[in-house]
Design a protein that fits this description.
Oxidized Rhodanese, domain 1
């Protein structure tokens, strides 16, 4: 394996994990306890998203078949702006606004003093869609961001939401269409 391929793979894994951990702290404790007050093992258990049910998961092949049939669906890349710009499934969009991703980067750089609220932004972004919109989310291999996004969308009342069980890497390995470019 060349060092360039290793670096690209490592960067993709790092970004996928970063996005996953970004979503996880948004889960609150049911008893109102602050994160620093909960025992570590209890805190981790409560932050972990539940497993998706059978009807909430589809394979890369199933998603590709839906695309080929021309099925109307909203395809969300749950990985974040930078991985999206490097490569995303054809037709995919990011779930949050351009302003959100810009503000998140400014916060990470120390320019903004408060982190943008992803939950509020998602609720705002989703107001334009009917609750029965067919939505599919995906992220990277061994990433939980698409699972978390499915759960967040269900909390907002969306009823037809699924996650692709394999990551974009499997999609690419199968030769399915991937494009690069900036946020639409």
């Amino acid at each position: 394996m060349s060092s360039r391929n290793f670096s690209k793979g490592f960067l993709s894994l790092f970004l996928s994990l970063s996005i996953s951990f970004w979503f996880l702290p948004r889960f609150s404790f049911s008893d109102g306890q602050a994160a620093s007050e909960a025992p570590e093992s209890e805190r981790l258990k409560k932050m972990r998203p539940r497993a998706l049910r059978q009807g909430e998961i589809l394979s890369a092949e199933e998603l590709r078949a839906l695309q080929r049939k021309g099925t109307a669906l909203l395809l969300f890349d749950a990985r974040g702006r930078k991985p999206y710009e490097i490569a995303h499934i054809e037709g995919a969009v990011l779930p949050l606004s351009i302003d959100y991703y810009r503000d998140a980067e400014l916060f990470k750089a120390g320019i903004l003093s408060s982190q943008p609220d992803a939950d509020r932004e998602l609720a705002q972004a989703m107001r334009q869609y009917p609750k029965d919109t067919a939505i599919v989310t995906y992220c990277g291999r061994d990433c939980q961001a698409s699972t978390v996004l499915v759960l967040k969308l269900k909390e907002l009342g969306f009823t037809n939401v699924k996650a692709m069980k394999e990551g974009i890497e499997v999609w690419e390995e199968r030769g399915y269409p991937v494009v690069s470019g900036s946020i639409r």
